[in-house]
């Protein structure tokens, strides 16, 4: 039996947790269980014996060179190849990503030109890593070289096919499988044709993404225009996560959207109010009524002042606040606000 990617040491934080976990595993004299993990702490907790933990060694330089040459399908300048694998720390995933990028764009991109592009992206990796909103526990040991090779590839996609980059960005917020099709209706379906493809079939988007894609894409862009687009993506995805019941993740994403829109648009902008309303929804769904109420009141009062009482967004904000009152057992306040919404809608909509 193989247990893959057992990286969360929090699941094994106490004796009871470990015993519960182990109760699901088969217990036979002749059985063997292999566990893979990026966390040495998790591995030691699960095995209960440091001697049972085997650390997979770093790939040797000669092996890394062979891997690069095999992936490129040809011999390359050995001096340049050695510089590249040293830069990539002999990490197979990083070498695979770099080789795929070079092979796809050959002969225009060589090992030497890729190295130059890599170092240009590497200068930005500090900001990239500091702005990570992903699962810190999951990625605490991921090498910078893996991050940067993803960044090089993603920047190329963004330059050549912006809509493909947008699609990747959206899909990075979902689980790796079973991404709902209706979330992708605004994007081209099926095949995304590569401008650099020499074959007639182009490239297809696969819904089974590596975890590292989430690591690279789960970042806030630096320029204003892209930040506003990002805030729209964050707001939409947070709404979907609320529908799935993943309230804590939805809260984290929409908090970023609120921050960006407040800074770029101001608190009275309708888009900012929409993100604030979504954030209040995550509070309500977690039973955090006081926080939800405070935000609902701010959204409603701002909407009344800026949009007017008859605006659909204002009426929605009033209904949300009424729901928050109702869930706290404040029936009279909920009733008064609910009646006010109903009468305004009857007057405006008929």
TrEMBL record:
Top-level taxon of origin: Eukaryota
Alphabetized SUPFAM superfamilies for the sequence: P-loop containing nucleoside triphosphate hydrolases (SSF52540), TPR-like (SSF48452)
Protein name listed in UniProt: Kinesin light chain 5
Lineage: Eukaryota, Fungi, Dikarya, Ascomycota, Pezizomycotina
């Amino acid at each position: 039996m193989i247990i893959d990617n057992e990286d969360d040491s929090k699941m094994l934080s106490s004796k009871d947790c470990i015993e519960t976990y182990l109760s699901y595993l088969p217990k036979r004299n002749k059985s063997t269980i292999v566990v893979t993990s990026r966390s040495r702490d998790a591995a030691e907790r699960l095995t209960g014996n440091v001697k049972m933990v085997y650390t997979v060694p770093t790939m040797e330089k000669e092996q890394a060179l062979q891997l690069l040459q095999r992936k490129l399908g040809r011999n390359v300048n050995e001096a340049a190849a050695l510089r590249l694998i040293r830069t990539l720390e002999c990490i197979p995933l990083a070498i695979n990503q770099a080789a795929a990028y070079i092979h796809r764009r050959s002969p225009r991109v060589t090992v030497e030109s890729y190295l130059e592009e890599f170092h240009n992206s590497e200068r930005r990796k500090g900001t990239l890593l500091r702005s990570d909103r992903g699962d810190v526990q999951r990625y605490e040991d991921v090498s910078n070289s893996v991050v940067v090779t993803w960044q090089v590839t993603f920047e190329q996609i963004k330059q050549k096919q912006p809509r493909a980059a947008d699609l990747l960005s959206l899909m990075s917020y979902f689980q790796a499988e079973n991404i709902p099709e209706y979330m992708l209706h605004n994007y081209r379906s099926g095949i995304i044709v590569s401008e650099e493809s020499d074959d007639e079939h182009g490239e297809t988007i696969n819904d089974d993404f590596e975890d590292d894609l989430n690591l690279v894409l789960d970042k806030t862009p630096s320029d204003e225009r892209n930040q506003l687009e990002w805030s729209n993506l964050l707001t939409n995805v947070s709404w979907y996560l609320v529908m799935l019941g993943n309230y804590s993740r939805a809260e984290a994403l929409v908090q970023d959207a609120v921050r960006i829109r407040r800074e770029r648009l101001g608190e009275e902008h309708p888009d900012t109010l929409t993100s604030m309303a979504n954030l209040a929804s995550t509070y309500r769904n977690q039973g955090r009524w006081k926080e939800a109420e405070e935000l609902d009141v701010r959204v409603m009062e701002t909407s009344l002042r800026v949009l007017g009482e008859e605006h659909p967004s204002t009426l929605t904000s009033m209904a949300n606040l009424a729901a928050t009152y109702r869930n706290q057992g404040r029936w009279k306040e909920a009733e008064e606000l609910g009646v006010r919404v109903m009468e305004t809608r009857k007057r405006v909509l008929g």
